[in-house]
Amino acid sequence: AQTVTQSQPEMSVQEAETVTLSCTYDTSENNYYLFWYKQPPSRQMILVIRQEAYKQQNATENRFSVNFQKAAKSFSLKISDSQLGDTAMYFCAFMKLGNEKLTFGTGTRLTIIP
Amino acid sequence: NAGVTQTPKFQVLKTGQSMTLQCAQDMNHEYMSWYRQDPGMGLRLIHYSVGAGITDQGEVPNGYNVSRSTTEDFPLRLLSAAPSQTSVYFCASSYSSRGGGQPQHFGDGTRLSIL
Predict the structure, then answer these.
(1) How many CB atoms sit inside 10 A of residue A54's CB?
(2) Inter-chain contact A50–B90, Cβ cutoff 8 Å?
(3) What is the pLDDT of residues A81-99, one digit of tens each?
(4) What are the respective helix, strand and coil percentages of chain A, to the nearest 5?
(5) In chain B, whose CA is at the least distance from the CA of A45?
């Protein structure tokens, strides 16, 4: 079974600064996908970014980028030029190839301070 | 295009009552699933379905029942509500059930309180 660990329950950063959220996972699979989801106070689950394990290149989506270290089983999310709208819970999630089931971490509550 | 629609958004039940949480998607998605979200525990998979007529258990299935008679609908039934089932419930769907890393689309959640 896979496990996903987010060791930072809460973080805060000043607006316009850069912040990095950590995620580690444990799996014996070689092919899988990793995701970061954002959950603002509205409770919606919004996909932020997706990484395919067979791709060495780190995924980026505008101000969001990941640092994917497959050997270390690490998948951190970097948010550049943070904005007030980035305030949310962030969940790291794992999906193995051939199965749609998501395994989530416990989340990091990020607060952007004006 | 409504996406994934969950009803109701809020519900309060008494211990022992039964109810059905509704989930519908209009994207012709094969895969649908239910998660529960509890403080400090992230989201945990309750049940999932890879197509009409096919369902299977996830990580925390006890006390819940599902069926998938159509592609669009995937209701979650609480047979006899218990306080431990107080949680926020999310329905999700994705285009393919073949595990190709397709993004999952989530409903807005149902906050359920069991007294």
Answers:
(1) 11
(2) no
(3) 999 999 999 999 999 888 8
(4) 5, 55, 45
(5) B106
